[in-house]
Amino acid sequence: MGEIKLMKGNExxxxxxxxxxxxxxxxxxxTPQSEVxxxxxxxxxxxxxxxxxxxxxxxxxxxxxxxxxxxxRRVCTTSSSPGISLMQEGISYIASAELPCLVVNIVRxxxxxxxxxxxxxxxxxxxxxxxxxxxHMIVLAPYNVQEMVDHVKxxxxxxxxxxxxxxxxxxxxxxxxxxxxxLFEQMPRKTExxxxxxxxxxxxxxxxxxxxxxxxxxxxxxxxxxLQAKYREIEKNEVLYQTINCEDADYIFTGFGLxxxxxxxxxxxAREKGHKVGLIRPITVYPFPxxxxxxxxxKVKGILDIEMNAGQMVEDVRLAVEGKTQVEFxxxxxxxxxxxxxxxxxxxxxxxxxx
Amino acid sequence: xxxxxxxxxxxxxxILSMGMILAYAGMIEGKEVCWxxxxxxxxxxxxANATTIISDKSISSPIxxxxxxxxxxxxxxxxxxxxxxxxxxxxxYDASNIINPPTRDDITIFGVAGSEAAIxxxxxxxxxxxxLGSFIAARKTVTPEAIMKAxxxxxxxxxxxxxxxxxxxxxxxxxxxxxxx
Amino acid sequence: xxxxxxxxEIPVNPEIAQKEFEVYSKPSTLxxxxxxxxxxxxHSTVHKLLMxxxxxxxxxxxxxGVAPVGCSxxxxxxxxxxxxxxAHGRALAVATGIRRMLPDKLVFTYQGDGDLxxxxxxxxxxxxxxGENILTIFINNAVYGMTSGQMxxxxxxxxxxxxxxxxxxxxxxGYPLKISELLAxxxxxxxxxxxxxxxxxxxxKTKKALRKAxxxxxxxxxxxxxxxxxxxxxxxKMTPLQSQQFIQEKMIPFYPLGDIKTPEGK
Lengths: 355, 181, 266
Fold this sequence. Notes:
heterotrimer; B: alpha/beta; Pyruvate-ferredoxin Oxidoreductase, domain 3; six-stranded mixed sheet; 6 strands; C: alpha/beta; Rossmann fold; 9 strands
């Protein structure tokens, strides 16, 4: 059993970055995740020699990540929605150049400058590409502070396994709330680096070039085919989800991240009133767990999806069930969060014909 | 046992710390805990607040619609959260700061003279610890010992000379509830 | 229509092609790929000078370069060293990431005026201001070459480009930007010099400047900038020779050559 601490989500994530042997962090302050760069600036370098650099913008920080990732090191940036929008070009380059890195989005309400309150409105941007071109990031959706820690380690491992950018898609509430966490032991920083890394031309024949420019369409198509093959591998191997109370369920509540916890509470309320409700919680939102929804589509009377947005993941849920079951959505927007009571009432209204 | 509480008042009254110390004490006792500051639908309207959940089993939503206990250090907090208390629940408020006290008859109401107790200790900044004492006396969510241990852990070492006055404040707060008429 | 070959194979007479008769050879640090640059363009010369210095200093395995977006986007095809290609304007952010991870290596960016002084101004200024141990080689030809001749931040007043077809009007299009002088003001910047490659003498001076900059990098002295006033015969609609004259008569009077800041205290 590792060390147990009471920590804010943002601080727990920062601590996990240090412990995961992260070599470099490049970021720019933005609410509600500035605690990350503050924590790292205080703690990281003295403990592990990790580089922590406050960049002049999110555009610069993601490109610093590109350069640093190109040296084969473990690197990370964190931001919140408007900052992540600024990073999209860089993320597209990183995906194309096949560089592993971790990008954390502590989502706040938008569009525009929006609000600093928590939101899940960046689901489409995170899971469907976000920047230009055909690409994906692996997207992990923590639902508590413990997963903010665990996903850091998992994110680095998946990124390095597939040479791909990985996103942790949190929200302002997960960043600010405190919960008990079990921290993993300090991992050593890497001392061996992949041979594709630009660390100076190796003696003799080998040299490394990191680029996303393949100007001949025939070549660029091959690059795309390779990326797509990689995404199919990821979809086959890396889907993660959790189910609760689904065995006897007549209805299924679903949601990701914080939304899934509200759904969980509403499920508990429904169970107390004698309604057989289960829960599906995607842990990876890309790759999305289509199959588990498909499996229950014919068996349950309905699925209620709860998100902190206008209805984004619900499109994937509907794709998965292929019209075989009624899918309803309940969400609040712009930094407002649905309470479990209103979710439960919506469930009664939509599936039980009112009270 | 699950205690779903909210601490509410003006920013600067140490509202967030009250919940954080309680959460820390819960963790010391091996319970599941969740502390969430100023977020959720209940936050609008100028009050700082922290939802704090202590439970023997794992905690689902940190966003909750109804509370077992509301701790209110100003009038807007009473006005806003009185209706959100579960039937049979509890409200603890600082009587010195509130003009219109809660009126529900299906809840337990403690209007404690917290500010007076803090003034008696010549330190208004321990008001939050006074009220936390009242909370523990009323709800017994965690032991007083766990609270004091938590306080020592949460308070940076340079403030540890303030631990004795906090201890007194905490005890004064407990007495306000124990002797409540 | 005939296909134009990439380059023409010149038949070699083995009796003449002997080491003892050799009067010129390319540095071993350049690849065998022929340059794609237009005839007369300064890029090829600067590539070669840089790689000569790398060869002479024996640092081929110790240096990592960053190619920009612009005509030199394919610089890594020619420079036989580890390289990364950066998004438009972000070369110095990318280089910062590399250098911070590889504190024992030498890192340089190779950028044009649009990349360095328009879209990438923020990255340029802040990398310089942080005193990053990076050498920036800045090719100033006063025009966007790769996108075929639009106005650049360094385009001279009244100079005709495709987006200043009546000549750059400074009252609406702003003034030509002396970014090197601007950067020289920053305390993190060690060495700023402006050179050119339009005459043999200037080619030699540029090579010296590159060597000095790399030596300063080896000493960890902070940010260095070598600006090379160059040409763009294709987009200037000139012959190579006319373009060299234009450098002499128009560019250099506005962008005077020589050291702007040195560690010795100029």
